Amino acid sequence: MVSHVASATPYGFQGQLIEIEGDISKGLPSVQIVGLGNKAIDESRDRVRSAIKNSLLDFPKGKIVINLAPAELPKDGVQFDLPIALVLLCLGKQLSQASLDDALFAGELALDGSVRPIRSSIAIAETAKQHGISTVYVPAANADQALLIDGITVIPVTDLKQLFLHLKGEKRITPATKHQNTIQRTPEGVLMDDIRGQEQAKRAIAIAVAGRHNILLSGPPGSGKTMLAQALNNLLPPLEGDEIIEVTKLHSLGSHGPMSNIVTTRPFRSPHHTASRTSVIGGGAKAQPGEISLAHHGTLFLDELLEYPRTLLEALRQPMEDHTITITRAQGRYQYPAHFLLVGTMNPCPCGYYGDPEKSCSCSSTQIINYQKRLSGPLLDRIDLTVNVSRVPHEALLQQRSMSNSQHKQYQSVITSALSSQKNRYKRSNKNNGSLSSKEVEHFVPLSSEANAFLLTAAKKLDLSARSYFKIIKVARTIADLDGVTDIGIPQLAESLQYRQISTL
Question: N or C terminus of the chain: which is more exposed, having fewer CB within 10 Å?
Answer without folding.
Answer: C
